[in-house]
Structure of DUF59 domain-containing protein:
Amino acid sequence: MRGPPASTSAIGRPGRQKMAGVSRHSGHHGRYGPVMLAEAIAAALDRVNDPCSIAAGRPLSVRRMGLVRAWRIEAGVLYVTFAVTFPGCTMAPHFMEAARTELLKIDGISAVETRLDTDYVWTPDVMVAPPVVMRGTPQAWRMTRAD
């Protein structure tokens, strides 16, 4: 499987809301223009949650977590490159398949090819999501009440 080249620009970086990877001359976009198609792709990726963020009780989409490195479209085929939060992640195949399923629902996308960028080192600063604000007292259940 051939994926996007490493030089394809990333999406979802902080301060950068521009969707990268849409070629304005890449062919049929179904009922969408290039900008609408980029928005539809972003919305589909926002419907796929990162399994580890769910387990941590702070569900975030793979896009908002910064796990979508890049994407491009060629002749109706969408190529998406993903990253993981740490090298030993075993959940990548699951969220990549969930993303593929969501992305195939978009009119104008005939196929989705996904790949994992194993050389990329993820850090929290690539998250699109605002920082999580913790409320309450951490581990309040450990505190004992003085009577």
